[in-house]
Amino acid sequence: MDIPDAGVVFENLGTTIEVVVNGTTSFAGTNYRLVQFHMHTPSEHHVNDEYFPLEVHMVHQGIDDESRLAVIALMFEVSSGDSSSIISSLSSSLPAVAEPGSSTEISSGIDFSDVISTLATSDIQQYSGSLTTPPCAEGVTFLIVKEPLAVSVADFNAIKKIVKFNSRFIQNTLGEANMLDVGAVSGLNFNSSAPAQNASAPAENSTVTSVHEATVELTADVGHAHAEVCLSLSLSP
Ligand SMILES: [Zn+2]
Fold this sequence. Notes:
Elements: E1 8-12, E2 17-27, E3 30-40, E4 54-62, E5 68-79, H1 85-91, E6 103-106, H2 113-121, E7 124-131, E8 139-152, H3 153-163, H4 179-189, E9 203-204, E10 208-211, E11 216-220
Parallel strand pairs: 5-8
Antiparallel strand pairs: 1-2, 1-6, 2-3, 2-11, 3-4, 4-5, 7-8, 7-9, 7-10
The structure holds zinc ion (ZN).
Zinc ion (ZN) binds near residues 178 and 180.
């Protein structure tokens, strides 16, 4: 595993805590740029009616077609052992982002090795939603990674204390866009002063399909994207 030893910015947006990263993911023939990942407690997605204490959303934007969006959703189980590397890489920085608006740099970057190995073995469920109202992009592909990663008891409690409850309630209609993700993306494509309510476009859709495990490939390349992302939108979960 070759992870660049570059720093990343870790920030508290008030609605979630987020790490601004850069990388590439290829899925179904489309190359995506990894923009950021952020957290939800508890999980927004349920797998076979089961919820998880923590869900991480890795938000991607199409490289050739920036209107194409993809979110990899990672589930976490509380573990008596250590956290997966994506969490352990940032856990010592949690106190620095305890307050909304605060941010810090994680100089050693994020270790995605546990994420990459899980993507290689897990079943992945895909669904897509089409956003119908500007300034939202045309489509968001959600990739739900069914095999959970680990978060230690101490790390989970620390994250929960900061993130609090920020999951949308489970909806009857699959594919409805997540406010945080849409808001984050509208911050990417448009001026950050765009009204947050523009991000509330409901999604049409939706079918769920299984994706072969080998079709998702993530290459982590951390620490280069902060200037490209402006996430000062004020969103209510
Ligand atoms: Zn999210």
